[in-house]
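Justification of computing resources. Each target in the renewal requires a structure prediction run like the one illustrated here; the chain below, 498 residues long, is used simply to show the kind of job we budget for.
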Amino acid sequence: MRELILALVLASSCATSEPRPSGIYFVMVDRFENGDRSNDGDANPEDPQAFHGGDLQGVINRLDWIQSLGFDTVWLSPIFKMRVEKWHGYGAFHGYWTWDLSKIEPRFGDESTLSRLREALAKRGMKLLLDLVLNHVGPDAPLQKEHPDWFHNRGGITDWNDPQQLVLNDVHGLPDLATEKPEVFAYLSESAKKWHADGFRLDAVKHLPLDFWSKFNAGKGESLGELLDGNPDTIANTWKDGGFTSMFDFPLGFAIADVFCRGAPPSKLAATLTNDRRYPDPLALVTLVDNHDLPRLMSVCGNDVGKVKNALTFLIAMRGTPSIIWGTEVGLDGDKEPDNRKSMRFDEKNELRAHVTKQMQQRAASAPLREGGVAVVDVGPNHLELMRMTKNGDATTVRIQNGVVTITPANKVFPDVYEQWRTGAKKKAVRFEGEGFVVGSGPELGDWNKDKAVPLPATIELPINGVFEFKRLTPTREWAPGENNVLHVEAEGELITL
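Resulting structure tokens:
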């Protein structure tokens, strides 16, 4: 059996039945635990833009906390030599203003500390995921003076819809590396290999060309791409063309926040999961409800612990590998930076911590929750019933009723759930009458793109067990009034006419 964590997390679509990992826990190193006060420097926990003193030794000291939650992979924010001074009033504590990928940032420790962390994780059967920033360097990086020809030097992005600017210009003023140059690529590639991580989380995927990613990811082991985009087609194509072994599932993350925190109908979750057939391997997705670049779940849910609990229950009960960020389990809140990057609070008796632990234990004990496909049993304005079923036919029901999630043994079993979920091969004809156009979720309905809307009347083949949200457009492509329509394509019955 392969031992690398992300070989288990991110197995390909033809992968084996090896167990997937329990989950990924993200640590922003400076905000977690101060394990070595000798490297604090000018740390000031009272200043939200200053360093707070967290370090690699602190991560070592708190591995019990992470493992007891049920997570077996630790993903660290960048730990490499970096800018440490504030820039235009913004703090550098996050680590994403990297200066040199070949050295450890002294505020976080040294190479021996990182080795001790790797060893401590290995003894627990846990793995390490390192965060790499490859698109740019931090402000005033010495590399700019040492190798000025390593940079594009085209200035900042002025048009975020220009694909050339996205990959050649500076992102928010950060010097953009000319990764197409062999010497730059060699520096990035060799630096990554030096650290012997179990895998890498790769930052700012959309700001580098796919041929770079395909070349970089080859021979690196496991790679988890960060593409902050809600379009499953964009995620799927980047995943395949960039040679990643997995991607973060932002489409589902956005849907979870909308449904459990903002009151959207649960059909939005069903429509999102119906797009799983488009991914190379939906079980290899890494799911999330928030991250360090977004408002925290607690704030999105208006500090309603009940809503947060249900959102986390659903996350942990879904396909893919669940990930959370430090402090989600104790209810850290925060909207914009740096408020969403507060220091960790280790509250042993916190009710959210107990809830996350219980849900992770339930997932670990359930093959359908870890490995099952997804079929929609029933959907309505306030409810959604999903079946999680393995290739072997083991099944579990995940139900949402008025925002509350319950997980029970399946009382109804559909045939061939797993294969249908993976491919969407079995379809049913749906007849859309009237004038104008129809557009909605899924490639058959144009992925909500007006320019790809289907002229009416039309008969469209849609996968059974799927749910689609759609709206009609007038002949001039104006939106019809009212909320989105919801279509559940059930296996039974004849032609559907709408």
